[in-house]
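General statements about sequence and structure are easier to judge against a single worked case. Part of our work consisted of pairing the sequence of a single chain with a tokenised description of its backbone. The amino acid sequence and the backbone structure tokens for this protein are reproduced below.

***
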Amino acid sequence: MSQRSRKNRRKQSRQPRLEVLESRQLLASLPFGAQPGDTGEFMLGRIAVTPVVLESDGSIDPNQYDWSSSQIQEVLSNLRQGMQWWVDLLHTKTTVHELEWVIDDQFALNPVETGYEPISRVSNDYRLWVREFLTGQGYNATGGIDSDMRLFNDAQRQRLNTDWSFTIFIVNSHFDSDGNFATGGSFSRAFAFAGGLYFVTPSTRPASTYAHETGHMFWARDEYAGGGSYTQRRGYYNTQNLNAADNPTPGFVQQPSIMTAGGLLQQAYNNLVSADATLEQLGWKDSDSDGIFDVLDVPIQMQGSGYWDAANNVYRFMGSAQVGTLQNLNSSGLRNDITINEISRIEYRIDGGNWQTVQTVNAYTTSIDLAIPVPDGSSQIEIRAAGDIAGIESQSYSSQVDRPNITNVNGISGVAWVDDDRDKVWDETEFGRLDWFVDLVTSQGTPISLQTVFDPDNFSAGELPNNFSSRVVFSTNGTLTDGRVGFFTDSSGNLGRTFHGYNASTQSWSSVWTDGTQRLQANFASPTSQVEVDIVGNGTSSIGRIDAYNSAGQLIARTTSPALSNGQRVTLRVGRIQNDISYVIVGAQGSGRSILIDNFRMGATSSVPTNNQGQYRFDNLPAGTYYVKARPSSNTYNSITPASGIQTVTLVAGVPATNVDFSFEYISSAWQNPNNRYNVDNNAVVNAIDALIIINELNRGGDPDLSKRGLSTPPYVDVSGDGFLTAIDALQVINYLNNRGGASGEGDTSGSNGSSGGSSSGSGGSGSGSNGGSGFNGGSGTGSGEGEASLLDNPNSEVRRYAIPNGRLQDVVQLGPPLMGPIYVNPTLYFWDPSTLEEEGMEHEDDDHDHEHDHSLMVDLVMTEWDDFG
């Protein structure tokens, strides 16, 4: 690649533009990836706590106990101490993470009236007064206490701008003889409904009780005898309850833990300790001992492409970034992949120097559009997205400054470019073309397909037979299915045939796929690296998901859609370069949601388009040897490197193959005059009419690709020979006319104005009139007429007339004297109005010289910016 030559160019800097992209978070206050029902998935971040103090009003049960203000303050003090215990414990584990409890005490300082006296009833009667509270707050829409409780908690989360939220119901037991609920219920004292819901406690319980029950809010299980069991699992990592009292491991000794009871609980509370397995259920697990818990120790995902923008003297990078999420293995809850990390900033560095912030973000996702000034002589640029936790960054985009590049973490990437000047060297202004294709092929160049496509419309309607495919077995997975799958016309009539499952309860085929009652399972005969599924929204706020598993039944990849409106379609993809996806399960995500399933594809993509710099990338390719071929959109290009047009790539697992490039040159175009490329109308004379023909054709509009335009010849409008009709074709004709010389013609000297020099190389008339001729098409054009200088010769003129229409390609043209040159022609610098075209007739003088006059094409260019090219 050529070195950049930027001497005497004025540097220009463009501020990056960034905007937040649509993400799967449904509301601004939700953690990334969470749904409104995810109100307590791991104990980190800001957490809303809503204590509700219940006061009997005697309307149903006799009013036995009344709260005093001192009792309320005592309860709030115990609550705060219990919350602070978790903060103090966290600080013994890490210096990176924080806990902030946001306590909304409005329902504590102003007790909520109820017709019941809760402490006098059995614990199971909580349904009565919890429902009473929710109804009073306007949350009784679903008919289920848990779902309405989550709606209330989510509203509190939004109002208080927190990550999580749960509620505490506190019943007055200050005057009760034993401080317990009435006998006969499931619980005698405090009890909880895990995962960001609520817990209930008598008012006389100590601070350690608040700490214990708060552990349940983030999925920790009981560990005392008769409580949780050793075999149970829960929490973000689906951690086994190894510290449970019934652990059968020989020599097991239960450790002090806040989730035990009695002395072990008190010991844990006093000494600020708990078992590792207990804390893992809350999300506190640091596998690599870097101080960052695994749930947040996930790199940011950044993708994009960059190139050197010679016109503006900056390096351009465009793409997007999104926080990374760890797969949620919880055996309870909604199992969404969630993070509270944010992208803090976008950074870059040159030649391994210090990282510099180019933009502050503070969001979960962002689009990126950067214009970075690069010092002369620089060779390498790196760009990354950095998180709000030190050490959480994206993989860096790294590229030579002078070449286009594209992010690539697990496949094959490169550029297919066009050698515009045919010098076999990649110059900074030479890019590829948009929407060419790069294919995986055989060694002989025959395209191959790594994908198997199952489009229900391509198969007969009916139940799939057992021998339907040798590559995959489709079945249903869910509580209401019997395993059968079929292709039937969707009831809406808009989708054609789609995947259907047999509903055993209704004994009918159903196109509706849910999160538990009916899901699609696909088991592969041999592991695959990629699966794509087209899902369609069914009702409002449909969310689809693909879970991918290996042969051991371990979840290894997952993708979840954004919320879809009814009929909205999206393609979901999961991929693994390890080529170890043994089966996938496809369904809706979240209670009450459903989707429709259309096309199903297995295997990696084997044909990808190029972007407008000619960049391409293959993802999710397993290790192996591949043959890669670039395919131009028309047959007007010839492969230069490699001559065969095929690159051989050996892909090693975990190591991306980059800079797999292809170069091309233009083939002689069928729309280029083979005798004289400037002679567009093929009449043996090159004049301004040839340029005008091209401009008229440009003004008609249409596809610039001449192979798609349907033009016959002559005229030969492809002066450049690149197979495209652009303003550069007219520009080359005009440059030719401006620089063309002749014999010895002279202009007339007797008129009132000296005439312009002729098509020969004459010196131009010395007219004695008021103005000397401009010599526009003449060779030297040195007319010596007296009077005021022409505006054409005035460098300070606001509007000057140049015979140079604005071109598709950047170009430098030298105008003949006395016009100023060179001039940089670029769409960003000049405005060309085709309506100002004139055809100026040249007066034919009857003299002794036998020469032909040209029609000179004049174009008004309004200069908006001037660069001094020395």
About this structure: The first strand starts at residue 45 and ends at 56. The chain is about 10% helix and 30% strand. The radius of gyration is 37 Å.
